[in-house]
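Supplementary Methods. Inverse-folding protocol.

Structures were first reduced to a discrete structure-token string of length 469. This string, shown here, constituted the complete conditioning input.
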């Protein structure tokens, strides 16, 4: 189904199939961290970095302990989140340079996003932060948030733009208009911290729409993605703790602070603080009981080398299809609706967000996706929760192509020209013991599913590609 027919269907469904009145539908706030590891949050095991507001959010809401990102890197993960398609079907299956032609692949007018679906059924929509799905220089505006269902956009258009955390270093966009660096260059880390600007913008959107509900706010922070850099007021609590120093070199376009461990902790804590500011604003505006907030991360961590234990009990990190690269800390908070202090092991993924949003907005027919709504699990109804037959990923950087599939507790990983690896996550969440030879029947079954899980894409072949310079 193309975008026009899908949206027309949804508009017609809107008027005849809501289970409750439009103004009773909940607001939806989706907060996405960037390269935050499963173990970087106190509620998921972190002991060194302070995340009091996320920990409080978990105590007042529900933790998802088996929730997966769309990909182990930023671009395709965000594409899965927006389109409801896993990387075997998504229009964007790799980061901008990792294509057959070497040119970025953007969203087009034929792609349908969750923002479009919600906007066309009465939601006011905004993205604040990192978009990363409109990469082509001089490309069509069709890939911009304004053409993909968002009424408002403030933040980074491209991935490279988001590799700078201070206002004098990078371009920001307001809707379709570029706002250049404040001094026209790539200066030192001493101007306004962009995370603060983004949070202020998110709060202003809530203020403007508190009395004109429902709304969908997608807050896509660039923290704690490289460069490792944070303002002094966030670094100060982590100084003089006796931590080992990790010196960071300023190389390429990353303007790191000189000492990494202190600044990485500061970035995570500043993100935590800003999540708290958003929750507080919802409370202050009297709309917390009618707003669901979902917090998650786009993939595993990149920074840590063991000091913070950022991947928790899992193997791997960013760019790995082992659990540490794709299993992400996820919390849902909805005052009076989500059970407080709960936990679910329901196996879910980014491509489920479209179906979940449709469920929340009482849209009877969602565009076809790879997703299943996780709303029942979020509300504590495990018995009524539908399950995935399997989850699928593919990734084609570095050692790629590599594919992975999870079915029940079984996880299979297949590197090109290598024998498959099979793990039972129920007894071996760290993926340390390859059981492929001991369970050839399971290996064969999952390999068969793996081969049928994808469609061909001319820019994302299952063959080695080399990045564009």
């Amino acid at each position: 189904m193309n975008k026009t027919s899908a949206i027309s269907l949804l508009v017609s469904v809107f008027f005849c199939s809501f289970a409750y009145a439009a103004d009773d539908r909940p607001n939806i706030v989706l907060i996405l961290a960037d390269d935050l590891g499963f173990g970087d949050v106190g509620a998921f095991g972190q002991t060194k970095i302070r995340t009091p507001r996320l920990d409080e959010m978990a105590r007042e809401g529900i933790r998802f302990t088996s929730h997966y990102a769309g990909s182990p890197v930023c671009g395709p993960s965000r594409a899965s989140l927006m389109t409801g398609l896993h990387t075997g079907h998504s229009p964007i299956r790799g980061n901008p340079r990792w294509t057959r032609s070497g040119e970025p692949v953007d969203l087009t007018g034929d792609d349908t996003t969750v923002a479009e679906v919600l906007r066309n059924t009465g939601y006011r929509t905004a993205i604040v932060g990192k978009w990363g799905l409109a990469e082509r220089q001089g490309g069509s505006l069709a890939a911009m948030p304004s053409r993909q269902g968002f009424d408002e956009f403030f933040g980074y258009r491209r991935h490279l733009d988001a590799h700078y955390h201070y206002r004098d270093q990078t371009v920001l966009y307001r809707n379709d208009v570029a706002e250049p660096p404040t001094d026209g260059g790539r200066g030192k880390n001493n101007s306004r911290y962009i995370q603060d600007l983004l949070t202020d913008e998110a709060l202003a959107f809530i203020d403007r729409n508190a009395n004109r509900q429902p709304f969908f706010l997608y807050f896509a922070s660039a923290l704690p993605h490289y460069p490792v850099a944070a303002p002094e007021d966030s670094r100060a609590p982590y100084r003089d703790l006796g931590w080992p120093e990790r010196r960071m070199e300023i190389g390429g376009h990353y303007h790191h602070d000189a000492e990494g461990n202190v600044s990485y902790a500061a970035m995570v804590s500043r993100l935590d603080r800003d999540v708290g500011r958003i929750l507080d604003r919802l409370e202050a505006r009297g709309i917390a009981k009618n707003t669901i907030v979902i917090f998650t991360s786009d993939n595993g961590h990149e920074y840590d080398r063991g000091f913070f234990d950022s991947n928790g009990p899992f193997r791997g990190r960013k760019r790995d299809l082992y659990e540490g690269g794709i299993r992400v800390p996820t919390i849902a908070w909805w005052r009076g609706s989500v059970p407080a202090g709960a936990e679910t092991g329901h196996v879910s993924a980014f491509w489920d967000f479209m179906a979940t949003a449709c469920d929340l907005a009482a849209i009877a027919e969602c565009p076809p996706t790879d997703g299943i709504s996780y709303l029942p699990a979020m509300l504590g109804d495990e018995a009524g929760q539908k399950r995935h037959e399997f989850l699928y990923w593919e990734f084609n950087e570095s050692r790629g192509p590599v594919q992975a599939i999870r079915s029940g507790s079984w996880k299979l990983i297949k590197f090109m020209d290598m024998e498959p690896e099979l793990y039972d996550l129920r007894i071996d969440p760290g993926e340390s013991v390859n059981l492929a030879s001991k369970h050839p029947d399971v290996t064969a079954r999952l390999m068969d599913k793996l081969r049928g899980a994808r469609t061909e894409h001319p820019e994302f072949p299952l063959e080695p590609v080399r990045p564009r310079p």
